[in-house]
Structure formats: C-alpha cells, structure tokens
Design a protein that fits this description.
Blueprint: E1 4-6, E2 13-19, E3 22-23, E4 26-28, H1 35-52, E5 58-59, E6 66-71, H2 72-75, E7 92-97, E8 100-105, H3 108-121, E9 125-126, E10 139-140, E11 146-151, E12 155-157, E13 163-167, H4 176-185, E14 193-197, H5 212-221, E15 225-231, H6 241-244, H7 246-249, H8 275-291, E16 297-301, H9 312-315, H10 320-336, E17 343-348, E18 366-369, H11 386-401, E19 406-409, H12 425-437, E20 442-446, H13 452-467, H14 473-485, H15 489-506, H16 517-540, H17 545-573, H18 576-592
Parallel strand pairs: 4-5, 4-6, 6-8, 13-14, 13-20, 14-15, 15-16, 16-17, 17-18, 18-19, 19-20
Antiparallel strand pairs: 1-12, 2-3, 2-11, 7-8, 7-12, 9-10
Length: 602
C-alpha cells in the first residue's frame, strides 16, 4: 500500500500565503471550471480567509503566486503543465510550479481531497459533521497572523481502499438537515460513498425518494458516489403490486414455504426459477433505475432474515449461496446493455456468507462481505473465536474465487449495541490492516446522527484508516480529544482507552462470552474510577459551558457502560430480579438523555 508518493525532494521551503490580513496568493480556476472545481475553490477561499483574515481572490487568470485548483481533465487543457504525472480517479497531488502551487485531483471529487489535505497541513481538523450537539467543536480551524506552508516536495496521495462508505441503513435519526451536515463532512475526511435504502424493510419510513431531490446536488458537487438499494427483492416484486392482485394472478411467482404453500411473506424469496417472475422483477428494477439516473451503485440484496423458495425447480438450482449468485449474475447481465452506468452490488451474508465453488460471481459486481456475528473480544482474524474463524475462512475463500472488488460491510457502529460506548480505534486498525493485506477494496460503517457523539471517535478514526491503515491512531485520538474536549483532552484520552479495553469484554455486546461475577465486578470498579474522574472534571471545567456539556456526555457514556456491566454480572449470577431493575435503569437513562447525541432510544 502506497499512501504517499514523493515526486521530488529537497530542503523544506517556507511559502508565505498571507500576513497581517494581506493575501500573497490568488486562487486559480480553469476557464471552464466544473461545479465541483468551483466548489473546491470556494472551500479553499472560505477556510484560508477564516484562518488568516485575508481576502483570497478566485480568478480564471493564471500566473505567479496562484494556488491552482483543478482536476487532471482540466489540467490537460492548459498549457505549461504537461510535466504533472497521471493520477487515478481517487488520487490527488500537491505540486509547486515556479511560483504557483497546484492542488490537482485525479477526478473532480478528488480535487476536494487535495484542498482539504492542503488545509489540514495548515492546522485544520474536521472531527465530525457539524451536528448541533457538538456545540461548535466538530471542527478545529486555527487563526494565524502569518500563514505559511512548509513545502518539502511534490507528492501524490492515493487511498488504500477504493470504497469508503457511510450507510444510512435504518435511518432512526436522519433528516434532511443532518444528512446535509453529514455529506458536507464526508470529503473532508475522504469518505466517498453514501448508501441509502430504496425503502428500508419496505416500511415506507426511510426512503431514498424522500431525500434525493435535495441531497443529489450536494453529493454530486462533492464527487460522492451515490449508492442505493438494500434488502430486498420485494421492492420490485411483492403481493401488493398490480393493485394488490399480483399474488392472486400469479401465485406461482411467489416463494414456497416449508409446508409447500406459496407465501405472501416478504421474507421468503420469490421463485427465482420462474422466468416470468424474474422478468417482472427485472423490468421493475430497470424502471426504477431509469427514473433515478443519479444512482451510481445499486445494492441488490434478498430480503433480510430471508428464507429461500422450497419448490423443486428452485431447489434444483442449488443451495442458497448458489441461487443467490445465479440470480445476481442474471440481473447483472440484464442491466449491462440497458443500464451500463450502474454498478451492481450484492452481499455475502447469512446463508450466502460461504461462496459457491462451482458458480462464480460476475467480476463486475461489487461484493460486500458482512461479518454480522463478529466477536469484538477478538480481532476478525483471530481463530480463537469460532465466529471470527468462520468469517476469516470464508472471506479468504471469496478472495480466492472472486476476482472482482470486495468491500467489508463492517459493524464498527452496530445497531445491536444499543448505543453502548464500544470505542475501538486500535481494534479497527488491526482489522483494517488485515483486510487491506487480503486485497479488500472497501470498508463501510453505519452513520446514525442520534448517537454520533458516542461513536464519533470510531467514525473519525475509520475515515483515516480507510485511506491509510498505517496512520498514527494515537495522534488521531489526540487530535479528536483536543478539538472536542480542549484542556480536558488528556483525561478523556485515558477514559476512551479504558472504554476500549472494557466495553467489548464486559457489556451487553452480542457474541461476547459470559464471564464470572468477580470479573464483571473488576470491570465495574474500573468504570467507576472513570466515572469519578469525569464527574470531577465537569466541576473543574464548569466555567467552560461547552466543555462541561461534552464531559457530561462522556459521563453518560460511562454510566451506560457501568449499568450494562452490572446487567451482565447479574446475568452471570442468574439474578433475574436485579437484571430487570438494571434494564429499567438503562431505559430511563436513555430516554432522559435522548437528545444529547449520545443515545438512540429503541
């Protein structure tokens, strides 16, 4: 993995960009700049002026002392820059050409990466989306009387992972306002794919159609890939279609249950062996994609908790994994000549985690591998966990048999955690290194605003790991804590460290092995010490209202972990009466603090 490629070397040169409110550079744009290039230039201007209090003019003229912002495509049309090396779509570079500075992206979206990385070198940090509960501490922008940059040679940066995704998924706390804030943050930390459901679980509550008109322009101007889909096939073939007459008119299209009856149950996969049913679904899918030209990747998944049709014709197609691949391949062939710009995506999940060995998935399909039952007591590659051993073996088998791109559908913020503060920066780094070494091309995570403060550090670290798995995680933790917690950063770093070494072992985290009561008592004592430190800090820093608020949020996280540890202790003792009391305490804690950015009530 090469995240940084130096083109030339030499002693570092100090370049003065502004001094005492006067700018010495102008921002240059190509004559026919795209919307994305213009937006990148505007972002550069906004933050340079915020840092220096100087006016940085944007112009289409070029000459000495310009910061040129453009894509490789635009650069090719310009004279005098033929020596700039080729860059791939996700790559960007920083070059010095005579007295000019060049911020160049391999694509229009990557131009933004160049701009934000340039600003990062000036001290800017984008720690989280600008959600209201961060109270202005979601980013750190310095102010400088003299604005200098140390230039030590041209470079090109490239990502370790091609796909760096945020999933909306259940959409428990998303709305237009916080989605726009999320989208604004994504390129600042180089996430490049936003994934939205067509209609989550078919309930009509979380739908791409409700947001697409307002979000598509914001995504496109930032070069963010739009991925839509999810569970399931039933969005395009279900009993409610044709004015509710589809099942009555074509019962043979619907999946057969274990009793031999054709079923209305949307969790039973339709009869994929029936050509007419397949054609009906494909035509509905094509109509949807034609009506949604903004979509770049379409997620084509079976229903969640699915059962496959038991009719003889379907069972003759093979096991669920074989049937799944057969149908995805069939759909990919159908779309190739009719919707060539769409990339189809499918899952390796549940019954089809293990790849078929005689039927091979179309190499143009993007495969998301889902270790949903991963044990967080062990790394994903640690075979002491039977669950993790299963995922490791099957991931490596997919990698051996499938030559297309594989992305990891990670659970580094998991709904089943119920907002428990499972803080895992170093754990994620170890996993991500393993994935990269296996040749994996993508990583993703759920992104709920409602408990983002709890998982904010995970999100911030994962964004950087997705670009470079060898990044200094401890430095990133320091940056995050300094920006969000200010003068209390050192204390908070120690609390986060304790949470990383306690919660995944002691709390109600799925697939964590039950411990002995005395072990839980030990974990609880450590969390009690954390709680006391945080409570004391709240009083110490009470004069700083925002810092006190953030420390109280951290205190809520620790309190939840304490209660969950007690719950597990009583479970290990078989004390159901005390378990019930603790569950009541937890529910009250979550409900009373549901608007803090820490918990999502369920």
């Amino acid at each position: 993995m090469v995240a940084l490629c130096r083109i030339s070397f030499g002693n570092a040169e100090t370049i003065m960009l502004a001094s005492k409110g006067k700018a010495f550079y102008r921002i240059g744009l190509p004559e026919y700049a795209s919307l994305s290039e213009k937006f990148a230039a505007e972002e550069l201007k906004k933050y340079l002026e915020q840092i220096s209090r100087a006016n940085f003019e944007i112009t289409h003229q070029h000459g000495d002392h310009f910061i040129l912002v453009c894509s490789m495509k635009s650069l090719k049309r310009m004279e005098n820059f033929s020596n700039i090396p080729y860059m791939g779509e996700q790559e960007y570079g920083f070059f010095k050409h005579n007295k000019d500075l060049l911020l160049i992206g391999g694509s229009e979206g990557a131009v933004l990466y160049a701009v934000y990385d340039f600003l990062t070198s000036l001290g800017c940090r984008w720690l989280a989306p600008q959600f209201s509960f961060y109270e202005g501490k979601s980013q750190s922008i310095p102010t400088k009387t003299e604005l200098n940059i140390e230039f030590s040679g041209d470079f090109i940066r490239k990502p370790a992972f091609k796909y760096r995704k945020l999933y909306i998924e259940e959409g428990l706390s998303h709305n237009i306002a916080n989605l726009k804030e999320l989208i604004d943050w994504m390129p600042k930390v180089r996430f490049n794919v936003l994934v939205a459901p067509v209609d989550y679980q078919g309930k009509g509550r979380v739908k791409w159609d409700d947001w697409r008109e307002q979000l598509s322009p914001e995504l496109k101007k930032r070069g963010i890939i739009i991925e839509v889909g999810g569970h399931g096939y039933q969005n395009f073939l279900n009993a409610g279609m044709d004015s509710g007459q589809l099942f009555k008119n074509h019962p043979e299209w619907f999946g057969m249950d274990k009793n031999g009856n054709r079923s209305l149950d949307p969790h039973i996969v339709f009869c994929t062996s029936n050509p007419a049913a397949v054609s009906y679904l494909h035509n509905n899918l094509l109509s949807y994609l034609n009506a949604h030209p903004e979509i770049d990747i379409f997620d084509f998944w079976p229903p969640d908790s699915e059962k496959w049709c038991t009719c003889p014709e379907c069972e003759a197609l093979g096991n669920p994994s074989e049937r799944h691949v057969l149908f995805v391949n069939q759909t990919a062939r159908f779309l190739k000549n009719k919707c060539a710009s769409i990339k189809l995506e499918c899952l390796a999940y549940r019954q089809y985690t293990k790849p078929p060995t005689q039927i091979f998935l179309d190499e143009d399909v993007l495969l998301d591998f889902c270790p949903i039952n991963q044990s967080f007591e062990y790394q994903i590659y640690d075979e002491r966990s039977e669950n993790n051993k299963f995922y490791k073996e099957n991931l490596l088998l997919w990698r051996k048999l499938f030559k297309g791109d594989i992305s990891i559908y990670s659970y580094y913020r998991k709904y089943a955690w119920r907002s428990l503060p499972n803080i895992i920066p170093h754990y994620m780094q170890n996993d991500v290194r393993f994935y990269h070494d296996c040749g994996i091309r993508g990583i993703s995570v759920y992104s709920e605003p409602g408990d983002w403060f709890t998982y904010g550090l995970n999100h911030y670290i994962l964004a950087h790991l997705a670009w470079n798995p060898e990044v200094d995680v401890d430095k990133l933790i320091g940056d995050y804590c300094a920006g969000v917690y200010g003068s209390a950063a050192k204390l908070v770093i120690s609390v986060y460290d304790d949470l990383e070494h306690i919660v995944r072992f002691a709390c109600k985290i799925p697939h964590t092995k039950q411990k002995k009561p005395e072990q839980y008592a030990g974990y609880f004592e450590r969390l009690e010490i954390c709680s006391n430190k945080v409570n004391m800090a709240v009083g110490e820093y009470s004069i700083d209202e925002v810092l006190a608020h953030h420390l109280r949020r951290l205190g809520l996280m620790v309190e939840y972990a304490k209660q969950s540890t007690l719950l597990m202790k009583f479970a290990s003792e078989g004390n159901e009466q005390e378990m019930s009391k603790i569950m009541d305490n937890i529910n009250k804690l979550i409900q009373a603090n549901s608007a803090m950015g820490v918990f999502i009530p369920r």
